[in-house]
Amino acid sequence: MYVLNYQKQVERISQMIPLRKNDQTFEVYYHDPSSGELWKSFFPYRNQTDKGPKLLRPEPLPSSLQYQLELCLNSGNPSDAEGLGIEYSLNTEKWDEILSHLNQKRKNYTRKGFFTFLNNLGVKDPKMTLEALQIDLDQHPISETELQNIRKKARILWLKKFFGV
Fold first, then answer.
1. What single-letter DSSP state applies at residue 20?
2. Strands across the sheet with 38-42, in order?
3. Are residues 43 and 118 located together in one domain of the fold?
């Protein structure tokens, strides 16, 4: 689903037809004539000085968060879990919901996909993640207490999966 490797992205994009490009957000949409799918190329961490990692994935994502997690964490391809984690690391308002889904279904996900996703989501140290993304903590909708609760939930969840509980 997600293509993170630069060479694979170039190879995949060369087989597709560009449809729409936004020079301000660096989003490009492609049509794959062999499958008929719409693909999106974008930089989720872009800012004034750095674009961050480039993601290439089919567009749109499945509408259900539960299905997205199941699809990406169990695909056997670590780049799927990594890509979804990177994409959701910016949606801090969904972190608590994501952790709840992961906790409920943690036994249904592969260990590698689960840990890769959790590490790229940035919830094990959310304050550091927000600072790295240059998000002002004073103007952020999540309070310091909520960030600590998310950190605690993530660490407990990591331990539960690690020990198979």
1. E
2. 17-22, 27-31, 38-42, 55-59
3. no
How many CB atoms are located within 10 Å of the residue 54 CB? 17
From the CA atom positions of the chain, what is the Rg in Å? 17
From 16, 35, 60, the end of a domain falls on: 60
Within its chain, how far is the Cα of 118 from the centroid? Answer: 9
CB 43 within 8 Å of CB 28: no
Question: CA 28, 55, 80, 101 torsion: positive or negative?
Answer: negative
What pLDDT score does 47 carry? Answer: 67
Q: What is the domain extent for residue 101?
A: 62-165
Residues 51 and 15 occupy one common structural domain: yes
pLDDT tens digits, 23-72: 888 899 999 999 999 999 999 887 656 677 899 999 998 899 999 999 99
Q: Which pair of tokens denotes residue 10?
A: 């170039």
CA 158 to CA 115: how far, in whole Å?
A: 7
Out of 38, 60, 82, a domain closes at 60
